[in-house]
Design brief:
The protein is an alpha/beta fold. Helices cover 35% and strands 16% of the residues. The chain contains 17 helices and 13 strands. The strands form two sheets. Strands 3-2-1-4-5-6-7-8 form an eight-stranded mixed sheet, with helices on both faces. The chain has a five-stranded parallel sheet with strand order 9-13-12-10-11. Helix 5 (95-106) links the parallel strand 2 (66-70) and strand 3 (111-115). The structure holds zinc ion.
Length: 393
């Protein structure tokens, strides 16, 4: 598939620009027209971290005329292993400011726009509307779904990437020409099921591998050359040193970009949608999360377990897992739940989606119930995978 260029060419290149970009200009597919398009392009990079670092540096060097940087974080020493746009002297500095300084040093002809703020449902539409293309370098699911939804609602393409340990993925999501992120991942993973780089680590150089794919695709979209990564997912395994791409089809039932969309504006709360949980809860859930089907198996085998539903009584009334004892999360947080737990049974916690039970799990584990687990996806997952006859809510 080839697509028309995203950006009209600028009127002209200055003598300085011709000198600077000469290695682009002599590539027939780029040439003067392509470089003028890059000059006219406005690209926003969401996040100046692992993926944003190489992306911003190469977008700047390539001569993208306007580069937006959005990040609210400050540079930490633990960032420097991979976030190469920042240096030792930037530790403690705002990432957006530090990244902007590096961009200006790489290419003073680039106009840098600093958005020193968190991306929120209040500002995402307005910020995105000022750009032709978004490069998504976010590291959490809440922001990822928000970026996707805003881009689809605005009809803008975005280049997505993700990294973990030795594995990377990248794709271009553009609902007008192919699938969106929700077509590939209709639902966020249950909390605790997918560890972040902060929990699981990431090989620093992996950022360059995936970030460079993102820039490569951005340049192709802006200038209208090559076969863009629309409808394809690139999967990179750094240990095997293998790239493979798999087809991603547009889902006609996609709630956002399908035939009968039910999501027609931004969600109120992406954190809640993704069941965002505290660091303590994420740590407790890591390696101690079971699926609803696994719980069913434990029950069927008659294992010595004590299943606790940490939701509220009204939720328990709507639907509950057979045999579960109701002890709302608040009782774990104030400590009163602990005396209700048997010492001689394995504790299995669950809630609606897995967020609250992860919080309760952190309390239970630190109280000494070291083999306690919680159910990823909670009662919703139970309804979906074990007993679809039960009501969902
Ligand atoms: Zn979609």
């Amino acid at each position: 598939m080839s697509l028309p260029p995203l950006v009209e060419p600028a009127d002209e290149l200055t003598v300085d620009e011709v000198r600077r970009y000469s290695r682009h200009l002599i590539i027939p597919d780029v040439g003067m027209a392509g470089q003028k398009r890059l000059k006219n392009a406005k690209v926003l990079c969401v996040g100046a971290g692992g993926l944003g670092s190489p992306a911003l540096m190469y977008l700047a060097a390539a001569g993208v005329g306007t580069l937006g940087i959005i990040d609210f974080d400050v540079v930490d020493e633990s960032n420097l292993q991979r976030q190469i746009i920042h240096g030792q002297s930037d530790v403690g500095r705002l990432k957006a400011e530090s990244a902007a300084a590096s961009v200006r040093e790489i290419n003073p002809l680039v106009e840098v726009v600093i958005h020193n703020t968190a991306l929120t449902t209040e500002n995402v539409m307005e910020i995105f509307s000022g750009y032709d293309l978004i490069v998504d370098g976010t590291d959490n699911f809440a922001t990822r779904y928000m970026v996707n939804d805003a881009a689809v609602l605005l009809g803008k393409p975005y280049v997505w990437g993700s990294i973990y340990r030795f594995d990377g993925q990248a794709s271009v999501f553009w609902a007008e020409h192919g699938p969106c992120y929700r077509c590939l991942y209709p639902e966020p993973p249950p909390p605790g099921m997918v560890p972040s780089c902060a929990e699981g680590g990431v090989l620093g150089v992996l950022c360059a591998s995936i970030g460079s794919i993102q820039v490569n695709e951005a340049i192709k979209l802006l200038t209208g050359i090559g076969d863009p990564l629309v409808g394809r997912l690139m999967i990179y395994d750094a240990l095997e040193m293998k790239y493979r791409d798999v087809k991603v089809r547009k889902d006609p039932e996609c709630v956002l970009c399908g035939k009968n969309p039910t999501v027609t504006e931004l969600l109120d709360d992406y954190e809640a949608f993704c069941g965002a949980i505290s660091d303590e809860a994420a740590e407790a859930a890591s390696g101690s999360t079971i699926t609803a089907l696994e719980l069913k198996g434990m029950m069927d085998r008659g294992e010595n377990i004590f299943v606790v539903d940490v939701r509220e009584p009204n939720e328990y009334e709507i639907v509950s897992i057979p045999g579960a004892t109701l002890i709302p999360k608040g009782e774990f947080l104030n400590g009163s739940a602990l005396e209700k737990l048997p010492q001689d049974k394995k504790i299995v916690l669950h809630c609606k989606s897995g967020a609250r039970s992860a919080e309760a799990l952190a309390v239970v584990k630190s109280a000494g119930f070291s083999d306690a687990v919680h159910v990823g996806g909670g009662v919703l997952s139970w309804v979906k995978t074990v007993d679809p006859s039960l009501p969902s809510y």
